[in-house]
């Protein structure tokens, strides 16, 4: 039963990826003017460059053949050529991907440790801790990453000088120092959402009848919480955490721009501004793929945690 | 008295609803000897489930409990922490809706052996062996396979048997069965009841059996108590309940059940609807609005639960109505 | 049969409580949030016409000057009055998210109703289509759209509306399916009412509370996402006034020791989003 669930999700997500790639590719043709003009980004290029573009993208062929060529190129790791930098998009992405990956990973750790941690603590107890968590999360859930970014820069970089404000680091340690504020900015609002959902899930599970059964048997509280409350709440918690982490992939662009990190997201924005379409397509594809993979992992986790799962999408 | 296993004296429970406290149980008193089976009968809202929960100390938060419940002579109200857990280990509860009361993400085997392994330190293999044994006794086929399955793979009836089996595994001294067969279809009901009765006799368990079905309780229990509006209105030996009830409500309940051997022109029903404890008037008998025998004295005060013959009745006119109640329905 | 229908009719009546009564039921917090939102909406409508100073005229002698005298919030990196720019930026900052929400809610509700009403193959196709749309994070779609169609509020708003539609549709589809399976719908069908009239006159109003709650929360997300797009330079273009743009413009000021302009714009966004989130949560509880 579960195997079919996985297979179906996998097929759905591969289909999503395929259609997404189609949309990303097709965007070229939605742009005003012809594809050649879009690829050159409104610049006037020498005829030799134009011809090279024509050949590389098979612009004389019908639409679907072009798509096929593009797709097979992608499958071979060729994501096109950057107009502005005259380099392979793949190379450009590879040099920046670790910054983004590191940022998202760092933020994810913060979300998991602090978000889930706070949620569990305030879900299991009442009183001051719970109220303060509710208030703090209500506020921080509303703070967009770029607002958090400027506040953090103000407080910790300018006023306190604990962390550098902008740029990447040179080695591992300084990398971590440079990525800390951005990671926190990225994590703040997601952390609040995860904490609130965790708290709600823990509260809901604590009130369930099967927990009463365990109480009536005299099971000690710690075992009760671990086996019957947390274990059951893990399902919605894992789901919301996964979804939230997936959303970090896109928002990282904003944080990277605010902190001048040279990650994929910042580069995507620059490429969009300079109308370097090939780069935009390439990075979009990578980001969508990452997003889709994370969602698949969430589905896998959900199926592993909940033995009742049947065919279809995960229940909300 | 040392032979009383459980003594409930003046149990009164109020629950917070919004800003106010609402009474749910009013002055509930009864005692059980070890080995006795005791039925608790009433309609919805009568307070029977709440009584069982009070005995197991499973009250919702904010509940105000007064009165005294003693187990083996000791007051359970003061228990907390490890002592409370030890008490709870001696009292096993079988709940009404098995699907809601069994953790759906853990295997059946985990559920059945949890108390054994956690509270009594029994090893995993030994616990599984005992569980397989008990599942067999309650009539579950392929017990070893069932232990590895998840609750959603078992039917309601099977799950209820699993609950009963796991309740009996720890050899409790008191079994609280809260409408264990209400959620099941009639055939399964009969099977599960038979198993419960059989095992109870085998293990010599003291049992409180909660149901809305007077006949069922009378068939299975030595004594039966009838509850109405949060109070006990009658306690009677089961074999006398039908022919010599001591309270008009009991008689009406018995009469309302259609007799399978006769064709009736009309179905007899008690006029009005059952009151919950908080709706009951505070200074008169709660049943007056629906009673066929009501008179002035019934409006004077709340009748006390008074001894009568071998049982008890909460009716001012119980003595004078004695003998007439059992025959009133045959018309 | 009569009893069942009678009960259902009572339920319908109960659920269509007046808007004012619903607002009161959200408690003190809900009312406060609604007031904050009202102020923001007011600012969006009349803001640009009541600015104390010219929000667009640069005056470099006043660069980053702090609050003084009658001026509460100081001046920004081009010497323009921050308070005036906040007011001038209110329309684009509020109307953008409003249009996103309006579009995605209309599309989402339509898809949900069709999906829930027809069920079967139609539902499967629509659901699969929506599932695929879920693969696109909203901001990414907006960036893609601005890369192709040029920077600006229109492209970004449309992209966001497309990206949000599946979320609305999914929530509403579940609720619509539940509504559709209730006895009163069958009763109406038997009486010969057409699908459209049942959907519009009965299903839709009963889903109304849920739609409003969802729209409220979505407004918060739209506001954040659109401001982010403008912050990235892909939305509203400077020197036009917009809260997201203001943060980006005055960013340098933070490192230089003049955080106020950026913080003011940031606070405006955060306040509205908090209000919208808290109100939306409470509306959800009622729905």
Question: Short description, anyone?
Answer:
Chain B has 331 residues and is α/β, with parallel strands linked by helices. Chain B contains 12 helices and 12 strands.
Could you describe the 3D structure shown?
The complex is a heterotrimer of chains A (316), B (331) and C (287). Chain A is an all-alpha fold and 316 residues long. Chain A has twelve helices and no strands. Chain A has helices spanning 2-30, 35-39, 47-56, 63-75, 89-124, 128-140, 145-159, 172-206, 209-216, 221-258, 264-273, 277-305. Chain A is flat and about 80 Å long. The model of chain A has no long low-confidence stretch (mean pLDDT 85). Chain B has helices at 48-55, 81-90, 98-101, 108-119, 124-137, 143-148, 156-169, 186-203, 214-220, 238-241, 248-256, 318-321, and strands at residues 4-17, 20-33, 37-41, 64-71, 74-75, 91-94, 174-178, 206-211, 223-228, 231-237, 306-308, 311-313. Chain B is of the alpha/beta class. Chain B has twelve helices and twelve strands. Chain B starts with a strand and ends in a 10-residue tail after the last helix. The radius of gyration of chain B is 21 Å and the shape is globular. By secondary structure, chain C is mainly alpha-helical. Chain C is built from twelve helices and no strands. Chain C has helices at residues 2-15, 19-25, 27-46, 82-118, 120-133, 138-149, 153-180, 183-190, 195-231, 243-249, 251-256, 260-286. The radius of gyration of chain C is 23 Å and the shape is elongated. The model of chain C is unreliable at 1-14 (pLDDT under 50). Chains A and B meet through helix 9 and helix 10 of A and helix 2, strand 6 and helix 4 of B.
């Amino acid at each position: 039963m579960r195997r079919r669930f996985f297979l179906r999700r996998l097929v759905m997500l591969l289909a999503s990826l395929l259609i997404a790639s189609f949309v990303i590719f097709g965007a070229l043709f939605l742009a005003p003017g012809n594809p050649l003009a879009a690829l050159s980004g409104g610049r006037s290029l020498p005829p030799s460059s134009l011809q090279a573009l024509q050949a590389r993208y098979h612009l004389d062929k019908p639409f679907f053949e072009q798509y096929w060529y593009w797709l097979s190129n992608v499958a071979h790791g060729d994501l096109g050529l950057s107009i502005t930098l005259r380099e392979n998009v793949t190379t450009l992405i590879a040099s920046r991907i670790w910054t983004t990956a590191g940022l998202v990973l760092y933020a994810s750790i913060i979300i998991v440790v602090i978000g889930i941690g706070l949620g569990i603590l305030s879900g299991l107890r009442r009183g001051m801790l719970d109220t303060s968590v509710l208030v703090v999360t209500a506020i921080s859930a509303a703070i967009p990453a770029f607002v958090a970014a400027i506040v953090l820069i103000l407080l910790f970089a300018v006023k306190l000088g604990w962390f550098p404000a902008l740029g990447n680091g040179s080695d591992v340690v300084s990398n971590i120092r440079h990525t800390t504020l951005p990671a926190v900015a990225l994590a703040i609002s997601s952390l609040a959402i995860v904490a609130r959902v965790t708290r709600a899930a823990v509260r809901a599970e604590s009130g369930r009848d099967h927990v009463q059964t365990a109480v009536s048997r005299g099971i000690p509280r710690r075992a009760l919480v671990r086996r019957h409350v947390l274990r059951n709440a893990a399902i919605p918690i894992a789901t919301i955490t996964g979804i939230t982490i997936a959303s970090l992939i896109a928002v990282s662009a904003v944080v990277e721009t605010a902190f001048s990190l040279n990650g994929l997201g910042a580069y995507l924005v620059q490429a969009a501004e300079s109308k370097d379409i090939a780069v935009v397509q390439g990075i979009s594809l990578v980001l969508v793929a990452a997003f889709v993979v994370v969602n698949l992992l969430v589905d896998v986790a959900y199926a592993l945690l909940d033995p009742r799962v049947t065919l279809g999408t995960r229940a909300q | 008295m040392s032979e009383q296993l459980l003594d409930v004296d003046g149990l009164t429970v109020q629950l917070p609803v919004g800003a106010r406290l609402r009474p749910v149980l009013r002055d509930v008193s009864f005692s059980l000897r070890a080995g006795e089976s005791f039925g608790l009968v009433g309609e919805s809202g009568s307070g029977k489930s709440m009584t069982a929960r009070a005995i197991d100390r499973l009250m919702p938060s904010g509940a105000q409990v007064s009165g005294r419940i003693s187990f083996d002579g000791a007051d359970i109200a003061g228990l907390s922490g490890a002592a409370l857990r030890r008490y709870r280990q001696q009292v096993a509860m079988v709940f009404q809706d098995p699907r809601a009361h069994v953790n759906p993400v853990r295997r059946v085997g985990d559920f059945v052996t949890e108390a054994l392994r956690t509270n009594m330190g029994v090893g995993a293999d030994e616990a599984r062996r005992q569980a397989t044994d008990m599942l067999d006794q309650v009539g579950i086929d392929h017990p070893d396979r069932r232990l590895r399955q998840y609750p959603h793979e078992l039917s309601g009836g099977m799950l209820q048997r699993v609950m009963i089996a796991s309740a009996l595994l720890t050899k409790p001294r008191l079994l609280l069965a809260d409408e264990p067969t209400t959620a099941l279809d009639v055939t399964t009901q009969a099977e599960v009841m038979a198993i419960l009765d059989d095992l109870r006799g085998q293990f010599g368990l003291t049992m409180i059996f909660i149901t809305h079905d007077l006949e069922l309780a009378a068939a299975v229990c030595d004594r039966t108590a009838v509850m109405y509006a949060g109070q006990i209105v009658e306690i009677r030996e089961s074999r006398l309940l039908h022919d010599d009830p001591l309270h008009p409500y009991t008689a009406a309940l018995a009469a309302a059940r259609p007799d399978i051997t006769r064709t009736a022109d009309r179905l007899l029903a008690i006029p009005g609807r059952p009151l919950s404890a908080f709706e009951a008037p505070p200074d008169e008998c709660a049943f007056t609005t629906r009673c066929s025998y009501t008179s002035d004295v019934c409006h004077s005060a709340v009748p006390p639960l008074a001894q009568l013959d071998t049982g008890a009745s909460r009716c001012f006119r119980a003595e004078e109505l004695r003998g007439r109640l059992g025959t009133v329905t045959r018309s | 049969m009569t009893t069942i229908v009678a009960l259902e009719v009572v339920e319908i009546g109960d659920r269509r409580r007046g808007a004012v009564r619903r607002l009161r039921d959200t408690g003190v917090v809900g009312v406060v949030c609604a007031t904050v939102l009202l102020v923001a909406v007011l600012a969006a409508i009349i803001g640009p016409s009541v600015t104390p100073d010219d929000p667009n005229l640069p005056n470099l002698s006043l660069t980053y000057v702090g609050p003084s005298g009658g001026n509460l919030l100081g001046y920004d990196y081009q010497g323009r009055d921050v308070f005036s720019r906040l007011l001038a930026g209110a329309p684009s900052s509020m109307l953008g998210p409003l249009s996103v929400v309006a579009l995605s809610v209309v599309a989402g509700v339509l898809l949900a109703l069709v999906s829930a009403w027809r069920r079967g193959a139609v539902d499967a196709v629509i659901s699969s289509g929506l599932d695929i749309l879920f693969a696109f994070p909203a901001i990414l779609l907006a960036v893609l759209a601005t890369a192709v169609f040029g920077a600006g509020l229109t492209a970004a708003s449309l992209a966001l509306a497309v990206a949000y539609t599946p979320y609305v549709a999914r929530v509403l589809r579940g609720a619509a399916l539940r509504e559709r399976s209730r006895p009163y719908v069958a009763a109406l069908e038997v009486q010969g009412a057409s699908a459209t009239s049942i959907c519009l006159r009965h299903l839709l109003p009963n889903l109304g509370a849920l739609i409003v709650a969802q729209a409220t929360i979505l407004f918060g997300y739209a506001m954040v996402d659109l401001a982010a797009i403008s912050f990235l330079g892909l939305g509203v273009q400077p020197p036009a006034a917009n809260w997201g743009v203001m943060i980006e413009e005055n960013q340098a000021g933070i490192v230089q020791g003049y955080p106020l302009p950026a913080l003011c714009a940031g606070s405006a966004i955060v306040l509205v989003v908090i209000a919208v989130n808290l109100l939306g949560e409470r509306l959800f509880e009622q729905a």
